[in-house]
């Protein structure tokens, strides 16, 4: 695949060429791209600034129709984009197609948001007055996205921004830029006015700084430490921020849990999509009575997965997405063993029919909640087990980690589920369902340091993509 930057409605060569490699087959180059230079990024931000007022004034039905058309094009091209995603990021083909269809759903949802009522009307305390609260576009939105969801994440950010009348500059991860290039081509095909959407590929710090400084709002998904750097930079210009960051998500399993269901949701949360989900499960907090049976079955589940080439029909788990993450995963397992963790399954590199970044689903047992393996995000197919005595200790352990993204519980007791839901400090709580697997019409987000600023997705995203204006109207004036 050949990919260029998209600036002010035109495809542009960048300053520095680079290529992406198939993590399922290290001998295959997937795409050839060029990184935007600083001047290119500045031009993209300028184009977004110039075009935004016109897009904000665009007829609302025409804007809704445009977003719906983008969704339809994503559906029509879902197999091609899903295949590219599988080759460039390492998800299985089914997962790649599924992610592309989710991207389409996001555009369809936000097409509806365009024509849904925005704003509120209040009676005033003053005679002859009314109070009107309206929402207006925040302006130019900078979007910086990671490598783990290369079409869905850019789509829900871009669709939301466009729906509320903003212009956008998107910078995807250089590990997986192909899907963002495809999205830009679809936006162009659908008839988006030039400059309203811009795509720049480049190194995070240099390009990101220019984007933060020139934008009215920044939506960023990535690691917590990078998020802290981004937030400090944004504070200098008071750029509005929405940060979706790291997770170390727990699943509590109580003695009364349906064991079969508990193992199913645990395995899904920990290892599907190679564990490369910020909402994936990395900690199993298990009460003593069910601990041994749960671990025995979960170990078997870990060893049963077929790990292989992302495009092979029988593959259940694809490769790790890139070499830095692959090396970090193996190092994480080594360090956990030094701490005292027992390796019950996985933890090793695997071979397949092609050279790739293959890793066995990994289960660490006999761990303590305060150990680094239960406090630091691995972002790989790695999960550990902590044994506790009861629900109170389980809630304390679940909350006993800085990250506050998602948390889950497996139990057949509604009272216990409700106690956990109320006691959890996570931004999202799952009961008898995996910690990963979110829906596009409801808020996504967490407390710091797992998140910062207004929530993503659904109607709640209006809080980030718009600014509210309160107007006092004296309708009794002559």
Overall shape: it is: globular
| Largest sheet, spatial ordering of strands | 15-16-17-14-13-18-19
Predict the CATH topology of the largest domain.
Answer: Aldehyde Dehydrogenase, Chain A, domain 1
The beta-strand count equals: 21
Largest sheet: 7 strands, mixed
CATH class of the largest domain, named Alpha Beta
Descriptive report:
The protein is α/β, with parallel strands linked by helices and 478 residues long. It has 2 domains: 2-245 and 448-472, Aldehyde Dehydrogenase, Chain A, domain 1, CATH 3.40.605.10; 249-431, Aldehyde Dehydrogenase, Chain A, domain 2. The chain contains 14 helices and 21 strands. The protein has helices at 38-56, 60-76, 78-89, 93-115, 152-163, 178-190, 204-214, 224-237, 259-271, 288-304, 323-339, 391-399, 414-423, 462-465; strands spanning 2-3, 5-7, 10-12, 16-22, 25-35, 120-123, 129-137, 140-144, 167-171, 197-199, 217-221, 240-244, 249-253, 281-287, 342-345, 362-367, 382-388, 406-410, 428-431, 451-452, 466-474. The strands form 5 sheets. The chain has a 7-stranded mixed beta sheet with strand order 15-16-17-14-13-18-19, sandwiched between helices. A 6-stranded mixed beta sheet has the order 10-9-8-11-12-20, with helices on both faces. Helix 1 (38-56) packs parallel to helix 7. The radius of gyration is 23 Å and the shape is globular. The termini are far apart. The model has no long low-confidence stretch (mean pLDDT 96).
